[in-house]
Write a structure and sequence with these properties.
Elements (H helix, E strand, L loop, with lengths): L1 E6 L6 H10 L6 E7 L5 H16 L6 E5 L2 H4 L5 E4 L5 H14 L9 H25 L4 E4 L4 H10 L6 E3 L3 H12 L8 E7 L2 E7 L7 H9 L17 H7 L2 E2 L4 H4 L1 H13 L6 H16 L19 H13 L4 E8 L12 E9 L2 E4 L7 H23 L2 H10 L7 H13 L8
Parallel strand pairs: 1-2, 1-4, 2-3, 4-5, 5-6
Antiparallel strand pairs: 7-8, 8-9, 10-11, 11-12
The structure holds nicotinamide-adenine-dinucleotide (NAD), 6-O-phosphono-alpha-D-glucopyranose and manganese (II) ion.
Manganese (II) ion (MN) binds next to loops.
Length: 435
């Protein structure tokens, strides 16, 4: 029987995780689930934890959901530790969004200055989790969902020296759920190959005869078919001529780079409109509605409203990964893992988000091969930017933080880059002991 520990258990996504485990119980016989949170998230955890227990009670399985504010109480004997915490909660996210926008720069949860600061707040905490795991559950797998998922996962490997880690994102899941029907196929008829970084990957698709159908999907999406873009990303279309030449499907987040001008203009418009606000401000509303629903003692299944969140269906990635490790299923899942040559344009020991086979020894990244110059250039820039962010997050080196800011394509260099850095450092002081 399996023991799961979920750090950030008070998340509104927890019912999604429970649903995923219940669905896979035959393959993954769970005995106990421990939700871990902190004082600031206690109330949320109690509401969603009771809801989680009701979900299990309504199922045929006998699973106990425990709750604690002390992760060291939860970790002993864990088989899988999943992380879905948000340091500073949504108020910190809103600062990550509003402060860059106030300088005319993109304010976004995982991209630009905001994404960098989310990494600065999160990496020290995850490294603390890893230290506790070394002591209390040295054989456990760490399944990270906490954003920025790619950098957080890489920091665990590189600075935490912990290799039993897999990073996840729901974006590839969404694409694989929706794209097949755009060309009249089902997922099991197609082979997907993803490569790149978290929120910065591309993919290609092949049919059951091995014929590439990437272009057919691109064409179908330009005819208005739904390609599974997450709810949090505004849909400015890519330039079709660019994709026709690229011959790959970019992830939804590439819009911030390929249509930077339009995405920034849209973000600034929402930020400036007090009736709309940033995504974090919008999500606060959705979250409040969700927790009102979770309080209902008769609710024992995941409510529809959770689909309004950008991370919908993430349990399909998380639970599928855990089940696939546990039962050594070697299924294809898109994960952040060590490159090991899958993307030869990047170092072998860095983290990449790629198609992989997941089994009892973890992820075996599938070779993707060299990229064309444009994608290679972006990838190397973004990966090295990530390296600077992680180094600054660990050391608190101001010059390194500035290097990351200046390298990041969402932050124009110059006085304002330094000003926005300084303002964010001040705004998040409480969560940045390293600086
Ligand atoms: P949330 O604001 O509900 O936070 C989840 C919980 O984490 C809160 O209850 C909070 O109190 C708790 N927390 C904060 N600091 C903690 C700490 N040090 N230890 C333990 N718990 C702590 O967040 P959410 O909107 O549910 O998102 C959770 C995380 O998952 C975020 O980092 C978010 O970016 C990420 N996410 C990732 C994806 C993906 O594709 N990888 C998708 C959606 C969300
Ligand atoms: C998905 C992503 C997450 C992202 C989240 C935001 O797009 O894969 O990594 O941060 O949704 O969703 P939210 O509803 O919080 O804006
Ligand atoms: Mn993601």
């Amino acid at each position: 029987p399996v023991k799961i520990v979920t750090i950030g258990g008070g998340s509104s996504y927890t019912p999604e995780l429970m649903e995923g485990f219940i669905k896979r119980y035959d393959e993954l016989p769970i005995r106990e689930i421990w939700l871990v949170d902190i004082e600031d998230g206690k109330e949320k955890m109690e509401i969603v934890g009771a809801m989680a227990q009701r979900m299990w009670d309504a199922s045929p399985y006998d699973v106990k959901v425990h709750m604690t504010l002390d992760r060291r109480e939860a970790l002993p004997g864990a088989d899988f530790v999943t992380t879905q915490f948000r340091v500073g909660l949504l108020n910190a996210r809103i600062k990550d969004e509003r402060i860059p926008f106030s300088y005319g720069m993109l304010g976004q949860e995982t991209n630009g200055a905001g994404g960098i600061f989310k990494a600065f707040r999160t990496i020290p905490v995850i490294l603390g989790v890893v230290e506790d795991m070394k002591e209390l559950c040295p054989d456990a797998w760490l399944i990270n969902f906490t954003n920025p998922s790619g950098m957080v996962t890489e920091a665990v490997m590189k600075y935490g020296k912990w290799d039993k880690v897999i990073g996840l994102c729901n974006v590839p899941v969404g694409a694989m759920m929706k794209e097949p029907e755009t060309i009249g196929k089902t997922l099991d008829q197609l082979t997907y190959k993803f490569a790149g970084l978290n929120h910065f990957h591309w993919h290609k698709v092949y049919d059951e005869n091995g014929k590439e159908v990437t272009q057919d999907i691109i064409d179908a999406m330009y005819e208005g078919k739904d390609g599974g873009l997450p709810a949090n990303i505004h849909d400015i279309p890519f330039f079709k001529e660019q994709l026709d030449t690229m011959k790959m499907i970019p992830c939804g987040y590439h819009r911030y780079y390929y249509r930077q001008q339009e995405m920034l203009a849209h973000g600034l418009e929402e930020y400036s409109d007090p009736e709309v606000g940033t995504r974090g401000q919008q999500v606060k509303q959705t979250e409040a509605e969700l927790f009102e629903l979770y309080k209902d003692p008769n609710l024992d299944h995941k409510p529809e409203q959770l689909a309004k969140r950008g991370g919908a269906h993430y349990s399909d990635a998380a639970c599928e990964t855990i089940a696939s490790i546990y039962s050594n299923a070697n299924r294809h899942i898109v994960v952040t893992t060590k490159n090991n040559g899958a993307v030869p344009d990047l170092p072998a020991d860095c983290a990449v988000e790629v198609s992989a086979y997941i089994g009892s020894t973890g992820a075996k990244a599938i070779a993707f091969g060299e990229l064309q110059p444009a994608e290679k250039g972006w990838l190397q820039c973004m990966k090295n930017m990530e390296h600077c962010v992680e180094a600054a997050a660990v050391t608190g080196d101001y010059g390194m933080a500035l290097q990351a800011f200046i390298l990041n394509p969402q932050i124009p260099s110059g006085e304002n880059a330094k000003r926005v850095l300084d303002e964010l450092l001040l705004a998040h002081k409480k969560y940045l002991p390293q600086f």
